[in-house]
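input
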Amino acid sequence: MKELIKIQSALNVPKNQRNDFGKYNYRSCEDILEAVKPLLTDNNCTLFISDELSAINGKVYITAKATIVNSEGKEISVTAHAREEDTKKGMDSAQITGSTSSYARKYALNGLFCIDDAKDPDGDKPEKQKSKEEVLSDQRKKLLELTAKDNKLLMNILSRYSMPSMEDLTDKMIEETYNAMDQKGLIK
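output
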């Protein structure tokens, strides 16, 4: 879909939100939607986002699906998953579900629009060797993209490490999983 390629190329969503407790910047689902709406209009496309709940081993997961449709009716969809916490300090059950939905939607949108969580390199600086942290960040991002599109892969990885979500995997787990998949030719 040519329109999606144009949108992906033009879309810029800076991390303008700040988590002072964790001391990091981030972008929200709302930030992505605000940035993409004019590009959707310019390219005569529509975006749909939906959620589906599922219970796996007694835990509630939300699967968010982001679908772009062009004027000819061609569509492309990406899904992402997030696990709903049983309790979260200061939040009622509706807020927990809403927060989990927003998280899953954000990662579905990241996958659909190829939003990179890494910083853009300055064009005039020479390329440098990536640090171990940058390599792990790239591996984590790639695994999140792959699992957003493949629920079976997600469940296999999570069950292998007995973890509730991809975000809970340690750097070592990410590295092991990425390398194993790369050796099998599953990383492109």
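quick obs: The longest helix spans residues 93-113.
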